[in-house]
Amino acid sequence: MNFFNNKQGVVAQLVYGALLIILIVVLISINSFSIIKKYKIGLNESLNNQAYIYAKSIYTLLRDNMGDNELLQKKVESLIDRNSEIKNFTILEPREDGFEIVVSTNKEQIGKRTNFYLYKMAWNQKDYQGIATDAISAGIALEEEDKKFADDLLRQGGNWFVALPMFNQFDQKEAILSIMISSQFENDITQKNQISSLILTMVTIIVVIMFLAITLRIWDYALLYNKMKEVDKMKDEFISMASHELRTPVTGIKGYSSMILDGSFGEVSESAMKGVSIIKSAADRLAILVEDLLDVSRIEQGRIEIKSAILDPDTVIKEIIEELKIQADSKKINLLFRPHKDILPKINIDPDRLKQILINIIGNSIKYTEKGMIEVITEEKNKKLFIKIKDTGIGMSSEAQKRLFQKFYRVKNDKTKEITGTGLGLWITKRIIELMNGNIEVESIEGVGSQFSISFEIK
Ligand code: ADP
Prior knowledge:
- There is one protein chain.
- The protein is α+β, with helices and mostly antiparallel strands.
- It folds into 3 domains: 25-187, PAS domain (Beta-Lactamase); 231-300; 309-457, Heat Shock Protein 90.
- It is built from 12 helices and 13 strands.
- The strands form 3 sheets. A 6-stranded antiparallel β-sheet has the order 3-2-1-6-5-4, with helices on both faces. It has a 5-stranded mixed β-sheet with strand order 8-10-11-13-12.
- A hairpin with an 8-residue loop joins strand 2 and strand 3 (113-114).
- The radius of gyration is 45 Å and the shape is elongated.
- The model has no long low-confidence stretch (mean pLDDT 86).
- Adenosine-5'-diphosphate is lined by residues 364-365, 368, 391, 393-396, 404, 409-411, 416, 421-427, 450.
């Protein structure tokens, strides 16, 4: 595994670890909250029953005194004194226009009439069981008048509302008994339970995170990631420094070997000429490598400059083809330009960078084609300019096509083993095209040929 794959692996491990931690935290939280919710629902049900039973017992206590409202009032007052959880106690009798309050812990209410919907519901219940509900639901009154009444009830601090029909000795419905009961005690306990369960959940989450961090070696990976970033930076700096330093001596070697070859230093023996021309071609290759490395470091450090200009693509292409024709001819490859039938609109990109891209791609086509031809085609489609470079070369597998634009990637097989290169050309090409908001794609069949297609938007 190389350095770059390693780095991706470390990032993947970090992301995996972080996702796992988030998932576990979410699951534990959902679990705790659903337990608390279920507990609350259960508690509410039992409070409802309790309030109901409470009201029924009081009803039994008061039943024998039905009709004697004064006595009932006294009994109610003494009951309230002894039971702080009872917040409101009311007995109401039906009239033509609603219910009249005949007994109440709130004496001001006596004599008043109300149509509170829960009283009506309790009165009209088929099984004469009455109703019990929590105060919040009781507060959802439909009419304005009811709302005021419900608000008054709520203000007295009860949490449970119970209304029961009362029967006289002839088993006839005669009144309604209504009480509000406070569940403050239970609420306090619930709140305490909730807080302690939340604390426990947080502690569990922290412990799980610590455990996972150790088992997944997240700290190690985080450290490793930092280290790799550092090494990556050092590598970039080294490439940048080394390529700068190499440039001058390589230029010297190239220059002097050219001078020897063209006779500037007088006559040299044939075997010495052979040696010097080998030096010259090695120096040429080295110069290309140095330029590629310099481009890589410029791109990686964001130092590459794009100087856009309005240009006619056909003119630039013709110029490059002219330049590369010598190379193609030496391999007996036909290098052709097939421009678009109409005059293409001008595009706004960097002319030097366009030349660099074309030299790279057409140069590759010449390099990786043994016989046949190379066509450069221009087209305009969907407000885009397409430059296609089509060759009848060695082509490449679909696996190679996927990795083609990776840094240092070179296809390694019998056909390519004699061809020298750095594996940087297409990486640089793609980056530069993207910096100019363009796109590059490849289609290829092994043994048949390849087609590289570059596109830029026409503005
Ligand atoms: P190199 O310096 O090796 O040419 P590039 O980045 O330019 O590096 O190209 C990467 C690899 O893609 C090459 O090594 C070669 O195997 C393959 N390749 C590029 N262009 C062609 C082509 N026209 N036909 C077949 N293979 C190609």
